[in-house]
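Q: Structure for this?
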Amino acid sequence: MDSLNEKDIEVWGLSLRLFHWLLAIAFFVSWWAVGHDIRLHILAGACIAGLLLYRLIWGFLGEKHAKFFSFTPSFINIKQHFLDLIKLKTRHDIGHTPIGSIMIYALFMSLFILVISGFSLIALQMNIGPLYGLQTTYSTEVFIQSTHHWCFEALQVLVFIHLLGVAVESILQRTNLIKSMFTGKKTIKENINI
Amino acid sequence: MKPLMVLSSFFILASLTISQTALATNSSIAMLLEKYQSEGANQFDANKGKSKWQEQHIQKKTGKPVSCATCHTTDLRKTGSHIRTGKLIEAMSLKTNPKRFQDTKKIEKWFKRNCKWTWGRECTAQEKGDFLLFFQSQ
Amino acid sequence: MKQKRLWGTVLLFGCVTLSMATLAWSDGWEREGDEEHEGRGFMQQTAGVSPAINKAYKNECSACHFAYPAGFLPKRSWIKMMATLDDHFGENAELDNETTNEITSYLTTHAADQAPNRFSRSITRSIADKAVPLRITETNYFLRKHREIPKRMVEGNIKVRSFSNCISCHTGAERGSFDEDGVNIPGYGRWED
């Protein structure tokens, strides 16, 4: 006879969870600090740079669901996920969902541009940081500043969609995804033969 | 007896203080007047200072007629204002503004600037002396 | 699994420490042997511009207007400004030789292309090599920073009248702070971006 057994497995490792929450905190601190204290803004930004570096490495060396190979989005999977969403169908993705994977990569790229443009600006304006000594014309500096600004605007949109997505998927998957990002665990149902 | 002593010493001290201030200012002006005399000026006349104060000259840059009174007004007891910026200029009268004219360097600085701007040249020792007397008189 | 957890955490904090440490990288203050500026760390270098601190400059040059920070113009502009005080924007602002020299020395030492403040490099970059601007409000840097402010809030505002009147809106100007946070336009309030 087959019966369903519930089992808790660790999907997100400790360092990955720390990464996620530190990134969120650093992002909001950096956001707040722009108008108030540029030093804090730069510190938070540099922190984000380090977090991204970790994630890049961990995407190759980390646990199963952290590895990039485990969530490369394919057109077929994305299409299926999209259809499931429209039909409000319950899915049981253990790691990242297909559309969620796109979000991850979108966030990566935006944050990467944000960080590079940020490092360029502190090099240009204060001659510090990993890009110190960088020289450009004023119009290039203005362009980098605009890039930094628009990248941030894009990230606000992405973060909003991300939060929305987490909420929607939590409901559809009947799983508290936010809790999972704290504990690292998800409950899976597996068939066992008695 | 005692209150009378306190009162009289107060009045003596007060009058000494006031006269000291008046003396101190007069001493700066007195120093300058001496300097101007050594530069060849004759007796100074407050009325001459008054008439020159209102003399119109064409300002080099704007081409418009101006005089000292344009900014400082003809009545030295009044507050003047800068014709372009509107910045307020305290009264030039020594009696109205006893704190004025304490720094000879400052007096010479403003003479140099304002004579050159208004008249296109520096004021002579005679003219400056006349002006100083005019400031003291009102 | 426990090993991976440990190494993951080590990697995480290692990366963050490294990236934050890179903020200390710099080729240092450009002029060697300048005692006043040696060892300027990350925290000091973030100040936008130094406020006017020289006594003579403050006394003489804020009698009619705000004592503009020396870091807002390049050295060559201050030299020209101090050499033409007899026609200072239409006024005669001449000073005696001693005072003129003292102020010129202060301004040129702290000029945009000499001082390592956060705005300075950008200001210098925004001015063409051959240009010798005398009006801070006409430099590209200034124009860009103020490009979103409508005329009615400045020229049309009786309490401001001109962009050269920094102190009417920048409440921290006297201490060298021009952050957007401290902007309060008279009659309009805080500048919300």
